[in-house]
Amino acid sequence: MTEIGKTKKQFIIFLLIAYGVTYVMGLLIWYGSSISVDVSSFGNAQMFYPAAGVMLAYLLTQWKDELLPKWFYICFLVITFIMIVCCVISVIIPGESVSLNGQEFTIWSLISQYIIILGSIFCWITLLISRKERREEYGLTWQNWGASVFCILVFLFLYFGRAVISYVAAGEAGMIKEIFGSLQAWMYMLIMPVNFLFSFAAFFGEEYGWRYYMQPILQKRFGMRRGVLILGVAWGLWHIFMDFFFYTTPDRGLIMTTSQIITCLGLGIFFAWAYLKTNNIWVPTIMHFLNNNLILVISNEYSADVLQNQQVTWEMIPSALLLNGVLFGIFILSKEFRKKEDPCKID
Fold this sequence. Notes:
Blueprint (H helix, E strand, L loop, with lengths): L2 H32 L5 H7 L2 H13 L8 H23 L4 E4 L2 E4 H22 L3 H6 L7 H25 L4 H7 L2 H8 L1 H6 L2 H23 L1 H14 L2 H8 L5 H26 L3 H12 L1 H5 L17 H11 L20
Antiparallel strand pairs: 1-2
């Protein structure tokens, strides 16, 4: 097989898993929603698919490569399969609700969380026992400490800045004091590093697929800026079943999808900038984790249901476009997007 042929085969396999499995499972999300079954576990599982597509593509086409981190890839794929099975069973045999720490969870939602925790532990083990050369060859090492920490701090500043601007613009400036004066908020943020260690697999699942694999391909094909913009739209549409049947109700699904694309364009640009600046996949992985988990802090709602059945309107779209465009989208003008060389490399 020629190198071009192998690359095309890898891309097809990636698409079949990252999008094919997502949309097939999306039909189950639609069905589960129609019979009032909890589909929250589907969102957790979906986060694994992009990286699973990359890993399966490499395993099937580069098995003989001695530097391939096979055990880590296989472990991740097994966890992904178990998550899929959990989702399917949750629709066929809906479980009872259980109470934990004062919150109600369906049994399958709770099981999916434990799968992520155990899966993350096993993934850490298989990753750490891989030789350093293997991790380096397949973009799995932490590197460029200074730039990496800088990017994460910039993200936090912009993330909280966006929340502050939103509250002030809505005439709810008092919420800012309430949120940051809350002991619960500070305790929650204090334990977030530990939470990341036990849930990283899901967030890595998206970023290894989008930033490590798909971003360089699209940038080489369409250019540094257009490639990232195309990826942002593709990333947004990847959420479409969750947008219609989980994040909000079907009658507001189109609004949610529009909002999702705007968010993915803004964050996609910023995550791409951070990855280009650091060549460290763990940076966008950490930022993705922060983006999803800090929602509980800025909403001041410490509930697992905070993302479900959101009340979105078309009137919210212009402000979302303005905030995400100014705060995150502006980074597309940075020097990292003016580079002509291989987008995987940094200075």
